[in-house]
Amino acid sequence: MIADPHTVHADPRMRALGEIAVRVTLEPWALSRLHHQAWLAEGLTDEDILHAIMLSAYFGHLNRIADAVAVPLDYVVQLTVPATDPRVPALAPSPVAVTGRPAIDPARRPATVAALAAWRTYMFDRDAPLTRRQRTVLARWVSHYLGDGGISSPDDLTANPIDTALRQLAEVVTLAPWQLADATFTTLRSHGLDDAALFDACAVASSAGTFSRITVALAAMGRDRA
Amino acid sequence: MGLPYFGYAESTGMLRDIYDRMRERPMPPVYRPAHGGAPGIIQAHSLDPALIPKVFGTSTTLNGAGPLAWPERELINATTSRLNQCLY
Asked: Is the pTM of this model over 0.90?
């Protein structure tokens, strides 16, 4: 399964959970009511599905931060870890903006909703190292790439060279985090951003991605078709 | 390569306090690194110590309560990581 995440499990419940992780990671905007109904038919409950969506979106943040700092694996694994391939093409951006009510109310996990809200406030409600405006630029581009129609379009923000570089960083963090490398940060460094500010930018983009993936997946499951 | 991060021995102030608090969290032994410090994924956030409790507080709500069982959560985490071309 780790070698090939598209492996089809014999157990319907595990198969459905694996598919949720695949969809949330690759194309949350492409979900529909049909997926929701299929997962229910395979034995999952709405609580299972909500838990799986939030967990996959959350783990995507850990992946992105691990990539940003290139932290080495430091725990024992039982299996040989397959090699990752930095040449893998970027994920496709969403072709649509998804809006609508969530098919499953996230308030069914009140502790997680509260924790995400505290995380969101920390990410967006401060002016250092990045400014609020720069945080907004990053979050709007991330939302754009993920099809989060509940967030304003990034196009109404006046572009300057730093905005352009932030957009490029948001794109890599969201759609190709495995390509994060020193070169990714060259332009922003040339504009004066230090390590703390660069990490802040990665964390804002990654966090925004977690929040938008959950929102988009839940809203997309309320539609008849993608 | 990538951005820098700081282990326990290099930590001071708020980061040291947070590392100490994170060490007290309940954690399955398999997740405790042999080096005895904070797990690498926590160290990965060390450029912004105040972010650590926000991120891992969310983890507690997702991994400390069901309905999904531990193997099911690991299936989701491993699938997500593999698709993101990440070892973590």
From this structure: yes
